[in-house]
Amino acid sequence: MNGYDEGWFPEPFGVDYERPPGAPCPGCECCTLRLCERAKASGLTCTWHADANDKEIVSGCPCSGGASTLSAATAAGKDGER
Predict the structure, then answer these.
(1) What is the pLDDT averaged over residues 70-80?
(2) Could you list the residue range(s) of the whole structural domain that residue 40 is in?
(3) 24 in a domain, yes or no?
(4) Is 21 within a domain?
(5) Residue 7 and residue 29: Cα distance in Å, rounded?
């Protein structure tokens, strides 16, 4: 035996980085405050601004329920940061 535990080895690149959680939205439990504010300001739903992994989670966000329904082409022109 070489003296090392076979199930463990040091990570050469350090620990995995995880972004700290954002401030929760006071109007819902599915989004962060930043995401809901961005959606309200653009007139689009939170789904348009969410990361690909989070789109299903925020798809029914009550904060952006009153957002206008836009076609993909109109939304792409309106949401230049997408």
Answers:
(1) 53
(2) 33-78
(3) no
(4) no
(5) 39
Q: Of all residues in the chain, what percent carry a pLDDT higher than 90?
A: 22
DSSP category for residue 59: T
Q: What residues have CB less than 8 Å from 43, skipping those under 6 apart?
A: 67, 68, 70, 78
Distance CA 31, CA 43 (A): 16
3-state secondary structure of 73: helix
In the three-class reduction of DSSP (H, G, I as helix; E, B as strand; rest coil), residue 82 is classed as coil
**Residue 64 resides in a domain:** yes
How many Å apart are CA 38 and CA 55, to the nearest integer?
A: 15
Is 45 within the bounds of a domain?
yes
In tens, the pLDDT along 24-54 reads 999 999 999 999 999 989 889 999 999 888 8
